[in-house]
Amino acid sequence: MKKISWEMGEFSGVKTKLMHENSAAKEILIAMSKGAVLADHAAPNEISVQVLKGSVKFGIGDEICELKPIEMVTVEAKVTHFVQANEDTIIRLSLAK
């Protein structure tokens, strides 16, 4: 058993940290300070994006939603999307392999 803490002390821009990896997936912490943006990008495989703390605008094309704590979206492989932090935010990114 491995205990993982998703807490982040200081927020400055966008920071990422690999929290866990196995043969099926990677679990990544993304910390974003208020106003920080992850501009249009795409993942090579399917992803799940869950807000643990804070809130973000999450967009795919013209479709934009606000994600608050414990809300999640799933995105198919190679779909271009963006994320903008409304406040200091911690995101759990699950990336399928």
Give the radius of gyration.
Answer: 13 Å
Number of strands: 9
Helix and strand string, N-terminal first?
EEEEEEEEE
Shape: globular
The proportion of residues forming helix, as a percent range, comes to: under 10%
CATH architecture: Sandwich
Domain module count: 1
**Overall pLDDT metric:** 95
CATH class: Mainly Beta
Question: Which sheet architecture does the biggest sheet show?
Answer: 5 strands, antiparallel
CATH fold call:
Jelly Rolls
The CA-CA distance between the termini, in Å, is: 22 Å
Keywords:
Jelly Rolls; five-stranded antiparallel beta sheet; globular
Structure description:
The protein has 97 residues and is mostly beta strands. The protein has one domain (14-96): Jelly Rolls. Helices cover 0% and strands 57% of the residues. It has a five-stranded antiparallel β-sheet, with no helix packed on it. A four-stranded antiparallel β-sheet has the order 3-8-5-6, with no helix packed on it. A hairpin with a 3-residue loop joins strand 1 (14-21) and strand 2. The chain is globular, with a radius of gyration of 13 Å. The model has no long low-confidence stretch (mean pLDDT 95).
